[in-house]
Amino acid sequence: MKFFTAPLPRLSRMPGDDTSEAGGNVRALRWAGVVLLTLLTLALAALTLGSFASLNPNAPLWLRSVGSVETILSRQAGAGGISSFGQAVGLTLLTSLLAGLTAFLKPRA
Questions:
Q1: What's the CA gap between 56 and 66, in Å, rounded?
Q2: What is the Cα–Cα distance from 78 to 96, expressed in whole angstroms?
Q3: Cβ atoms within 10 A of the Cβ of 52, count?
Q4: pLDDT 10s digits, 69-102
Q5: Residue 45 lies in a domain
Q6: Which of 20, 38, 78, 87 is a good FRET partner for 68, with 20 to 30 A between their CA atoms?
């Protein structure tokens, strides 16, 4: 008994994944975006780590200094009314979402 098996559509296909020249330009732009989002994610991860370190008085000084930078930046952004722990949890969620977005936008082979 022979069954008809049609090829499954690629669900992970995004614009710019084809091999045409115009698709190659879009693919290069997507790679540039992924690199920028990765750098932003790493910066937010460092600020998140510093934010949690500032909650602990026994944390290393350099790590608490990163937490101080995060506190200054969050006050400038208007999040000064949120508790330190709330800011750390919020940064954790934001960093996770940004990392997921970066992985989703990465061009596929």
A1: 13
A2: 21
A3: 19
A4: 988 988 898 887 888 899 999 999 999 999 999 9
A5: yes
A6: 38
Count of the separate structural domains present in the chain: 1
Please give the distance of CA 31 from its chain centroid, rounded to a whole number.
Answer: 14
> Could you give the C-alpha distances from 54 to 42, 73, 85, in angstroms and in order?
18, 14, 10
Q: Given a cut of 80, is residue 18 above it in pLDDT? A: no
90 inside domain:
yes
- Does the pLDDT of residue 12 top 70, yes or no? no
Kindly list the distances between the CA atom of residue 94 and the CA atoms of 15, 29, 32, 34, 82, in Å, as whole numbers in the listed order.
26, 24, 21, 16, 15
pLDDT band at 45 (very low <50, low <70, confident <90, very high): very high
C-alpha distance from residue 105 to each of 40, 48, 60, 77 (Å): 14, 23, 36, 27
50 is written with which tokens? Answer: 């510093």
Question: Which tokens sit at 20?
Answer: 């045409």
Residue 20 lies in a domain: no
